[in-house]
Amino acid sequence: MPLLLAVDIATRVLGALEHHGYPVLFWSLLINNVGVPVPAESVLLTAAGLAKDGHFRLPLVYLTGVAAAVMGDNAGFLLGRHLGREVLAHRFSLLLTPKRIASLDRLLARWGAGAIFVVRFVPGVSTVSAVLAGSSDLPWTKYLLGNFSGALAWVAWICTLGYYGSEWGERLKPIWSGVHRATWVTLAVLIVLALAGKIFLKRRAGAASRQ
Hints:
Blueprint: H1 3-20, H2 22-34, H3 40-52, H4 58-83, H5 85-91, H6 98-111, H7 113-119, H8 125-134, H9 140-210
Helix pairs in contact: 1-2, 1-3, 2-3, 2-4, 3-4, 3-9, 4-8, 4-9, 6-7, 6-8, 7-9
């Protein structure tokens, strides 16, 4: 997807979130987990941040996020099982790149349901993991276990970042400001030392040549 188009979609979705609320949150996460590249993390982060200002209720944001993620993933899984790997790779070649397919296959072969839990936290791969898992030999019961537990943890993590992120940012400002100043002071000292060393070596070389 071209960068400008992706930015335009993200802007429109985030704008609609403030005006239409939970339905936009639900459908954004659902279709993202089916395999459509909608900015699910940004939508969930924004909704959780708006909950801090009273525009949403955080428990409802969490429950909506989990429900949408699980339903979308399982719809994607059924789509992948119905179409099969070759059809998917042909029809969705822009999303299902050989690199993504190989990465998920390695994870599934080694970890099974645990891989489904892990890829939930991997941007890019998480969007296509459901349809790829459906086209693999992984049983649905194992997929559901990894998918549901992964959705619970992932939505909780994103909601926590969105809800407390601004507060953490304010608390960290003095620290980052101190680090910033210390970095510039250190850089200035290093530059002065480097120049002094260069002058010293140049004068020493000149003195040696005169002897």
